[in-house]
Amino acid sequence: MQPRDLSDHVAYEAGRGIEEVARELDRDPSTFVKLASNENPHGPSPAATEAIRETASSVSSYPKAAHADLVAAIADRWTVEPKQVWLANGGDGAIDYLHRATLEPGESILVPTPGFAYYGMSARFHHGEISEYPLSTDDDFAQSAEDILEAYDGERIVWLTSPHNPSGSTISLSEIERLAEETTDETLVVVDEAYGEFADRESATALLEGRDGFDARDDVAVLRTFSKAYGLAGIRLGYAVVPEAWADAYTRVNTPFAASELACRAGLAAIDDDEHVDLTVETAREAREYMREAIDAHVWPSEGNFVLADVGDAAAVADAMQRRGVIVRDCSSFGLPECIRITCGTDAETNRAVDTLNEVLADLDLETDGADADAEREVPDT
Ligand SMILES: *Cc1c(COP(=O)(O)O)cnc(C)c1O
């Protein structure tokens, strides 16, 4: 007896954890900083921590009221109907629900490359196919309706990531509107705003609601998560905001009790903790500007809580940084073997990452110069 043919499926490669790296290098975990998974350097909202503590003794009950309360709070925030909010086990869970609700076997989604691996993985689980549209290092990973439409061939979902992981580029609401306008009635445009809080842009929920001068649309959905700005990655809480016509599909595709009691209570506390989100966003904005200025390599402009840097040999640089105690993301698995992604840390963490990276780049430069000199010496002088 075997599982079905999973040879097309690839395992998700998460950023490496401190424990894992420290054990491998036989070092004290407390001497490392991890800036590899775009987590919140300030930890969870203190209000959420308190709510989790308070909820601990009541986790013997299934979550019902908490789920309804959180959905109501989120609906309020985006001025949509509660049934348009699809709560899920992380943003990843919401990606699954959208695919479940959309894809017939063999139907396709269109995703950015480089891009977030889980769109494709999830579509495969749901017997879907994947097509890609390219984003290019040469024009700073610019995202435009025109370029995406060039690759578009009637896919059921077009995935946009704004801000984009791993580059930090964004797409404007008018471009998203144009894309939705020019794709067929059978296509849903989903805007993944996992890093939306960090960007200086309006949420694409404006297109669903018809806010800010846009006509209300029934072919756009938005994905959001509590993992990044709210610092709740470990609790697994995210959601999709879907068109009104889609609302009822949720009850047909969701896992019973899609988000846990702890997650819902933490989310409810965190969503009102503006102070923590503001501090988080401010730290990220300063850190990403500082990294662009101070790193001795090309760093792309980013609207997320991370930056992408062109370091030449990502595997070598990430490895050397790790040995010096700073864990960053080697972007080879994104198809960018020359780039690393560095999460914005606290001021001290970001400073250490910049100093470490610049040291590593200088050392590697010396080594290459040395190698070049050796190579030259071997050239016969005839
Ligand atoms: C982190 C992330 C998500 C969702 O993460 P969850 O922890 O599952 O909420 C979704 N999209 C992108 C691009 C991300 O980087």
From TrEMBL:
One of its GO terms (biological process) is L-histidine biosynthetic process. Signal peptide: none annotated. The keyword Phosphoprotein does not apply. It comes from the Archaea. Its EC number is 2.6.1.9. It is an enzyme of class 2 (transferase). GO terms for molecular function: histidinol-phosphate transaminase activity; pyridoxal phosphate binding. It catalyses: L-histidinol phosphate + 2-oxoglutarate = 3-(imidazol-4-yl)-2-oxopropyl phosphate + L-glutamate. Residues 32-356 form the Aminotransferase class I/classII large domain. NCBIfam families: hisC (TIGR01141). This is Histidinol-phosphate aminotransferase. The gene is hisC.
